[in-house]
Amino acid sequence: MHCRIIILSLLLVAVLAAIQENPLSDAYIDKINSIQSSWRAGRNFDVNTSLSKIKVLMGVKPGYKTKLPKKTMRVSENLPETFDARENWPNCPSIKEIRDQSSCGSCWAFGAVEAMSDRICIFSNGTKQVSLSANDVLACAVEDGCNGAYADYAWEYWVSNGIVSGGDYGSNEGCQSYPFPSCGHFKTGSRPPCEDSPPTPKCSKQCDASSSLIYKDDLHYGRNFYNVYGNEKKIRSEIFENGPVEASMMVYVDLLNYKSGVYKRTTEYLVGGHSVKVLGWGVENDLPYWLIANSWNEDWGDKGYFKILRGSDECGIEDDIVAGIPKL
């Protein structure tokens, strides 16, 4: 009994030490790189950034599981080993865009409007190019969207209400620009410091004062929305045939330090739920991966992108894939 108590005490000390370890420290980054070789960790966030500030960026609420109808589809024959939507549809500049959700938990809206914008261009053969407004979705699809929501809501809103155009903060692009500036989440880069989590903007059915567009005339609609349920080949087929999709995943603290390679988590320390855009796949050093666009600006990760292990539902990346077809 005495030995058992000692062992339990040592385990408790080890757990507490792991919890107290700063996951943004150089020591933690070195630890990640020492225990695996599929990806490289490095400095993204300033070492003194509080995890509570980072958790604000995780805008997928706990317990999320898409309720969208499952798409009945065939698996495409002869899918390529590597596929990059940026290269397959070079006349669609939105596919190459890395946006910045700022200090708002609006990833669920960003992953959606990014994929929707790409698909409008793809389905129109490049004749219709638009950046849909993350602000329109954030402010109107749910209440208090900066505190998080579900990706489903954005796609349902696209079909039922339509979404206007809108670019980054200060771009004066489209009907409704994003209301929060790109900011320095990270140690790298020259952007201004991020403010504390801002209040969700009020829903407005008007364009910005600087825009000459009329809100109701600028609405872009989806024809349908659906869930590509948990099948790696079906997900690849969907991207190959129709364009990028939105995925919701769980973020663990080690991903905050991602720089390159194929990410596989090394920790149980969960930060929160997050939505991203999946735009391709490939194989690197014999590891299959998904190619992901994040919404934390180009200073994070590999110029805003990351690769994550494909085919084993790493961090739930294959659990909640949502998409839809635009109405042109």
UniProtKB/TrEMBL annotation:
State one molecular function term (GO). cysteine-type peptidase activity
Residues annotated as coiled-coil are: none
Q: Point out the signal peptide segment.
A: 1-17
All copies of the Peptidase C1A papain C-terminal domain together span 79-325
* One annotated GO biological process: proteolysis
Q: Which SMART domains match?
A: Pept_C1
Which InterPro entries does the record cross-reference, listed alphabetically? Answer: Papain-like_cys_pep_sf, Pept_asp_AS, Pept_cys_AS, Pept_his_AS, Peptidase_C1A, Peptidase_C1A_C, Propeptide_C1A
Q: Which CDD domains match?
A: Peptidase_C1A_CathepsinB
The source's domain of life comes to: Eukaryota
Concerning its family, UniProt says: Belongs to the peptidase C1 family.
**Protein name (record):** Peptidase C1A papain C-terminal domain-containing protein
Taxonomic source organism: Cryptolaemus montrouzieri
